[in-house]
Amino acid sequence: MRLSVLDRSRVRVGHGHAEALRDTVAFARRVERLGYHRFWVSEHHGVPGVAGSAPTVLAAAVAAATSRIRVGTGGVMLPNHQPLVVAEQFGVLESLFPGRVDMGLGRSVGFIEAVRRALGHDREDAAEFGPRLAELLGYFTGTEAVRGYPAHGLRVSPFVLATGAGARVAAAHGLPLVIGAFRGEAAMVEAVDAYRAGFRPSPWAARPYVVLSSTVAVADTTEDAWRLLVPEAWSMAYSRTRGEFPPLRPAADILAGPMTDRERALFEQSLRGHVHGTPTEVAKALDALVDRTGADEVMVTTSTYDREAMDESYRLLAGLYA
Do 226 and 280 contact (CB within 8 A), yes or no? Predict the structure, then answer.
């Protein structure tokens, strides 16, 4: 099975944003050696716990530090940007790193109203994702009145992240789909089936292509794998109760500390739906997910405080499908 990585440049307590970005670049080199197919970075604005706010800039640093692995974005949030500017940025990336660039695109807007206001956009802009996507692709194919250099005539690999109507948009434009397993199995399978049924072949893809994105944690014991999920789950619970996404803390500190009833409920909810366990348990769970969805690829994300344990998780996972 083809395995890829999504890294969100998470900040850890006691470390800064610059260190998180350097960690992302170093991490890309390590997973390339392990044989992963793609390495994607994300876009977040105004989030203290996430350093990745400029995905095309970070993707350039990752591509320059690696040699084989495909590099892309998971994703550039198109409602936040003018399509011409996005086309130009990816045109530069493809020109510098030919044949290695993925253009993952999403339709989400800012995390909170203040961020959306600072970006000059609001929730309604997500509804324009389809037309903006068509415009963006047109700068590569030459159908727009303005020539977007150096994008004009280049062939990047576009993907659509399935948030909201994303699956329908991907099908209509004939693009590969990236969908999160955390959506819930029934909704996920329904969205994938609808995508395949509505897919229209395009110059970008002759057939449907599904990338299943999932949080995965692998360790020698099920409990150790579960503990890898704790820091991110607590950050999610914290953000839901305080409106701020904090840096990752050690699992031991979180489990030993107090939680309100609401925090504990949100924390436990955030731990559900992820794949974790021993190598045997994880292989069984991932194989079942792929069987149910017919996914062509699995994109793994693991955010935790302990970087050594995270690296070991990716090493064990790569060994399952080498």
Answer: no
Measured CA angle at 111 (ends 124, 89), to 5 deg:
80
Judge contact between 110 and 121, C-beta under 8 A: yes
Which domain, by its residues, includes 138? 2-216+275-320
Is residue 249 in a domain?
no
Instruction: Give the separation between CA 284 and CA 275, rounded to whole angstroms.
Output: 10
Q: Is the pLDDT of residue 181 over 70?
A: yes
CA 210 – CA 289 distance, rounded (Å): 12
Query: Is 165 within a domain?
Result: yes
What residue has token string 């996507």? 133
Number of domains in the chain: 1
Residues 6+ apart with CB under 8 A from 120: none
Measured CA to CA in angstroms, residue 77 lies from 80, 89, 152, 161, 199 at distances of 6, 13, 21, 9, 22
Contact 87, 149 (CB under 8 A): no
**pLDDT, averaged across the chain:** 94
Residue 26 lies in a domain: yes
Residues whose CB falls within 8 Å of the CB of residue 2, separated by 6 or more in sequence, listed in order: 37, 296, 297, 298
Taking the alpha carbons at both ends of the chain, their separation in whole angstroms is: 9
C-beta of residue 139 within 8 angstroms of C-beta of residue 103 = no
CA-CA distance, 165 to 236, in Å (whole number)? 24
Residue 147 belongs to a domain? yes
CATH of the domain at 204: 3.20.20.30
Q: What is the pLDDT of residue 168?
A: 93
Q: How confident is the model at residue 184 (pLDDT cuts 50, 70, 90)?
A: low
The one-letter amino acid code at 79 reads P
Which amino acid belongs to residue 54? A
pLDDT band of residue 212 (cuts 50, 70, 90) is: very high
Q: Which two tokens stand for residue 197?
A: 């049924």
Q: Long-range pairs for 121-125 at CB < 8 Å and ≥24 separation? A: 121/79, 121/80, 125/79
307-320 vs 279-293: helix axis angle to the nearest 10? 60
Question: How far is residue 211's CA from residue 194's CA, in Å, rounded to a whole number?
Answer: 15
